[in-house]
Every structure is written in structure tokens, then in C-alpha cells.
Amino acid sequence: MSARPATYESAVGRLEEIIARLDSGQAGLRETLELCREGKTLIEYAAGELEAVGQGLEELRLDELIARLEAQGPTTE
Predict the structure, then answer these.
(1) Tens-place pLDDT, residues 5-29
(2) Is there a contact between 42 and 5 (Cβ–Cβ < 8 Å)?
(3) Which of 3, 1, 11 shows the shortest CA–CA distance to 48?
């Protein structure tokens, strides 16, 4: 699998397959190298997806905070 995964979940699933294959001790040297390369690509993709979701959650929290502050009205000190 060298193409970009369709989803975070499919990337994680493929990573689990790669780890199982490497743990089996049955992969040859070239296959191990290819699996490691693919795994690196999948990890980078998954990390990017997690970062995007984290940013989305942060934006939602900021939007909620702004809405609450606007609902409270101006404060006088």
C-alpha cells in the first residue's frame, strides 16, 4: 500500500498490519525496508490528521468562549 490512506482509521489499521508482519520475523530485508517506509508515510499522515482534528477542537472551544463572552455583555471594572 503506497497510496495515501482514505481515512485515519485505515492508516492505523494498515500500521497494525505492518507491525504484525514485522513482529512475525518472517519479512525479509527488502520487505522490512519497504514496510518501514510505508509505516513512516502512514505515521506522518495519521499525525497530520490528529493535528487537524486538534486544531478543529481548539477552534470550537474558542468559538464557544466568544459566544459566552458575547452573551455576558461588556464588563465594567
Answers:
(1) 899 999 999 999 999 999 999 999 9
(2) yes
(3) 11
pTM of the entire structure?
0.73
In angstroms, the CA 49 to CA 57 distance is 12
Helix (H, G, I), strand (E, B) or coil at 74: coil
Look up cell 502512514; give the residue: 42
Report how far residue 12's alpha carbon sits from residue 32's, in angstroms, rounded to the nearest whole number: 18
- Neighbouring CB atoms inside 10 A of 55's CB total 10
Using DSSP, how many helices (H) and how many strands (E) does the chain show?
2, 0
